[in-house]
Specification:
The chain is an alpha+beta fold and 151 residues long. The chain is built from four helices and eight strands. The strands form two sheets. Strands 2, 3, 5, 6, 7 and 8 form a six-stranded antiparallel beta sheet that branches. Strand 7 and strand 8 form a beta hairpin.
Length: 151
């Protein structure tokens, strides 16, 4: 269940709040191939299972930007804000990819609100989202995601 706030103003004072974790999500070859088609990145480490089996990871891996894009999938499972006219993905501050996501892996996200600031017409929230790989001590991605919730 996501952490739910009744309005953007209710976010004030939540700096440092642990938002918990999402459910696990499996990274399939189909998902990787669809992302390759969408971005034009068909590098063999992503799309050629036979060649990738002989490569450095022993299988295909998800694109780093595919892993990053999952932050958008996971954020509503971590944080919900009611009474908004709109929510905007404003950008990111910092992104790191400490560990590759091998096809067939399951990933999930945990989140922490790091900063809440007032902006014209609403509130800006920075959430540090860590995308974890099941049974891997290193995360796949750590991103400071910036969202704006307008009144």
């Amino acid at each position: 269940m996501p952490m739910t706030f009744n309005s953007p103003r209710d976010l004030f004072g939540s700096d440092g709040l642990d938002l918990g974790v999402t459910d696990w999500y499996e990274i399939t070859q189909e998902r990787i191939n669809l992302f390759a088609d969408a971005t034009g990145d068909h590098q063999w480490i992503h799309t050629d299972p036979d060649k990738a089996e002989e490569g450095p990871f022993g299988a295909t891996i998800a694109h780093g930007y595919l892993t990053l894009s999952l932050a958008n999938l996971f954020l509503p499972d971590l944080l919900q804000v009611s009474q908004v006219s709109m929510g905007i993905n404003y950008g990111v501050n910092k992104v790191r990819f400490p560990s590759p996501v091998i096809v067939g892996s399951r990933v999930r996200a945990n989140g922490t609100i790091s900063e809440v600031t007032e902006i014209a017409g609403g509130v800006q929230v920075i959430v540090v989202i860590t995308i974890e790989i099941e049974d891997d001590p290193k995360p796949a991605c750590v991103v400071e995601s910036i969202s704006r919730f307008l009144h």
